[in-house]
Amino acid sequence: MFAVPLGEDGAELRPLEPWQAEEFLHHMDRGREFVGQHIGLADAVADLESSRAYLQSYADKTAADTGRIYGIWTPGQHHGAGTLVGGVLFRIMDVPKGCAEVGCWLEPAAAGKGLATRAARVIIDWAVEQRGIHRVEWVVSTANFPSIAVARRLGMTKDGVLREISPYRGKRLDLEVWSILAPEWREVRQGATAPRSSDG
Question: Rounded to two decimals, what is the model's pTM?
């Protein structure tokens, strides 16, 4: 099975596929309130059918090369695949244009350990170095401070704020757009070979 180690804690990044819909739903049930504070994923994955449909939509995007989704697993108490605790995705991937939008989510037990940052680094590196993506975006609610912190740790620049652009649960959210360009990414990666204690 394809898996990328994310560090000494045994966490792994793997593709998240429709056959894992039940595991994805259980994970979302554990983190629903926490995840749903800022992003619509918690509302989109409400039962087994919607979980499978969500993962199938990304399987279709993967096949069309327009998006991808990956899960973050931490070692479980039992032998086997471990526990799905979060993930990262390319919500949009426009290879001809050289642009992609990355996002992440975690259940509460996995927050604050640097998992989202480490996982995002892996997929951004792949997009820039293997796929020729020039600009990687991170679009985040102005109130989602942990996600903004990840964008900062990835070396991204805040491009601006889209005011009240996103209707969500009865109100309109301001979204910040962060980005990093391929030459900047390579510079950041060269300076980030040693582990940094600021990883959260």
Answer: 0.89
